[in-house]
C-alpha cells in the first residue's frame, strides 16, 4: 500500500515543479528590476544601457536618450513585444526583430534582443537583471 502512495506523492511533486517552472511566462511579465544590456562586438562587451521593468511597464535604455515609460507584453513562450520605443534599438532605422526571455537561468532572468539595423544586418544583445 505504501508503494502507490509514494508514486502518487512523487507525481504530485513533479507536477508542482513543472507548473512552477512555466508559471513566470504564463504570468506574462518579467521579474521587476533593472536589466543591464550589453553586446559582444570585436572582442569587447559594450554597454547599451539599462532597461527598468516594473510590472508590465518598462523604461530605457537611457544610454540612447529614451525617456518615459511604456507597456510591454510577453507571451506564454517568453517572446516580448515592446509597445513603445526602445532607445537606439528602435531609432535611426533600427528595429526589433525578436526579444526572447530566459527566466530559468541560474544566473538570473534575462532577455536577448535581436535588432535589425538600417543596413539589414542583425545584432544580438543580452539584458541581464542586476
Order of helices and strands: HEEEEEEEE
Shape: globular
Please mark out the parts with pLDDT under 50 across 5 or more consecutive residues, or reply none: 1-23
- Describe the main β-sheet briefly: 8 strands, antiparallel
Relative helix content: 10-25%
Name the structural class: alpha+beta
Q: Give the strand content.
A: 35-45%
Mean pLDDT, all residues:
81
Number of helices: 1
Terminal-residue CA separation = 49 Å
The strands making up the biggest β-sheet line up spatially as 5-4-3-2-1-8-7-6
User: Over the alpha carbons, how many angstroms does the gyration radius reach?
Assistant: 18 Å
**Number of DSSP strand runs:** 8
What would you note in describing this structure?
The chain has 130 residues and is an alpha+beta fold. Strand 6 and strand 7 form a beta hairpin. An 8-stranded antiparallel sheet has the order 5-4-3-2-1-8-7-6, with no helix packed on it. The relative contact order is 0.17. The longest helix has 26 residues. Helix content is 20%, strand content 42%. It has 1 helix and 8 strands. The N terminus is likely disordered.
Reconstruct the topology from this structure.
Layout lengths: L1 H26 L5 E9 L2 E11 L2 E3 L10 E5 L5 E3 L12 E8 L7 E7 L5 E8 L1
Core attributes:
single chain; alpha+beta; 130 residues; 8 strands; eight-stranded antiparallel sheet
Amino acid at each position: 500500500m505504501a508503494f502507490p502512495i509514494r508514486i502518487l506523492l512523487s507525481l504530485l511533486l513533479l507536477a508542482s515543479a513543472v507548473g512552477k517552472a512555466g508559471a513566470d511566462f504564463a504570468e506574462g511579465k518579467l521579474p521587476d528590476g533593472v536589466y543591464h544590456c550589453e553586446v559582444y562586438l570585436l572582442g569587447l562587451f559594450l554597454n547599451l544601457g539599462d532597461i527598468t521593468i516594473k510590472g508590465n511597464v518598462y523604461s530605457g535604455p537611457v544610454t540612447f536618450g529614451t525617456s518615459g515609460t511604456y507597456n510591454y507584453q510577453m507571451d506564454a513562450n517568453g517572446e516580448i513585444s515592446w509597445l513603445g520605443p526602445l532607445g537606439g534599438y528602435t531609432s535611426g532605422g533600427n528595429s526589433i526583430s525578436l526579444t526572447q526571455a530566459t527566466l530559468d537561468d541560474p544566473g538570473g532572468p534575462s532577455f536577448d534582443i535581436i535588432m535589425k539595423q538600417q543596413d539589414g544586418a542583425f545584432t544580438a544583445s543580452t539584458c541581464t537583471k542586476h
